[in-house]
């Protein structure tokens, strides 16, 4: 049976919530706080894996290196600062060997590269060489490299795409695809995404209307890229068509921004229900399909 194999940089997301009980009498601007709650969850590729396990029924096998710690401090629900500990992961050839050896026919192969040290570019080439036509491969990265050539799906953010091809606009995903020979998804945060489907020579330019009162729904965007990736992979695994998978990914990412960071994963039932009821309009112009999703208040 097919599995989803994930290689990447796991982070530990540690949230500490304090209540401001009074101010320091000697220094009135300094709060005196009391710890009221703390939560520890897997972040980075760990957040991707946690969401995948909720969104699909296939076995998800996770390979990762060390665990950098990110502590986020909140006072009266306001994000104050972050402390990073052990930010670098030491590369392990043994881990890569184990991952490559694990790949079998029909497995989905995922690399979530936060550039902390788990994955080197030579590892990516080796992994892709192990895969065959029965494997679907995915890479999420912030640096486009020649070693990415041959991956089925390359996901990057808009800034990374601009650095890679030195252009902006609707053709940016195609330009990255021309450089890497891959299907490309360029995420643009709240503005949507641009995708290029290489086999069909098609651009997809996806935008969203604003909420009438966006502040009623948005909490923060921490982890939204991971949840987009999880939504897209899970939709393809669940045999949705590509355009439907991309829209589902946006649904999952959007839901993640309505809750605090990576504390909770996206609920599959809620994601499926929202996907069923979304309103989209599609306009085709040349080789570009313009898709707009309406975001409306209930």
Question: What does the model show?
Answer:
This protein has 298 residues and is α/β, with parallel strands linked by helices. The chain has a single domain, classed as Ribokinase (UDP-N-acetylmuramoyl-L-alanine:D-glutamate ligase). Helix content is 29%, strand content 33%. It has eight helices and 14 strands. The chain has helices spanning 45-55, 93-102, 121-130, 158-165, 172-180, 224-237, 242-256, 268-277; strands spanning 4-8, 10-23, 31-44, 60-64, 69-75, 78-85, 108-112, 136-140, 153-157, 183-187, 193-197, 202-208, 279-285, 288-294. The strands form two sheets. A ten-stranded mixed beta sheet has the order 4-1-7-8-9-10-11-12-14-13, sandwiched between helices. A four-stranded mixed beta sheet has the order 3-2-5-6. Helix 1 (45-55) packs parallel to helix 6 and helix 6 runs antiparallel to helix 7. The protein is globular. The N and C termini lie far apart (41 Å). The model has no long low-confidence stretch (mean pLDDT 94).
Structural class: alpha/beta
Percentage of helical residues? 25-40%
Q: Round the Cα radius of gyration to an integer and report it.
A: 20 Å
Report the average pLDDT across residues.
Answer: 94
Query: How many domains, in number, for the residues?
Result: 1
Strand order of the largest sheet: 4-1-7-8-9-10-11-12-14-13
Mind telling me the CATH superfamily name? Ribokinase
Beginning-to-end CA distance, first to last residue: 41 Å
| Global shape | globular
> What is the CATH topology assignment?
UDP-N-acetylmuramoyl-L-alanine:D-glutamate ligase
Sheet with the most strands, sense and barrel status: 10 strands, mixed
Strand content: 25-35%
> What is the annotated CATH architecture?
3-Layer(aba) Sandwich
Please count the beta strands (DSSP E, at least 2 residues each): 14
Order of helices and strands: EEEHEEEHEHEEHHEEEHHHEE
Name of the CATH class: Alpha Beta
Which regions contain 5 or more consecutive residues with pLDDT less than 50?
A: none
The helix tally amounts to 8
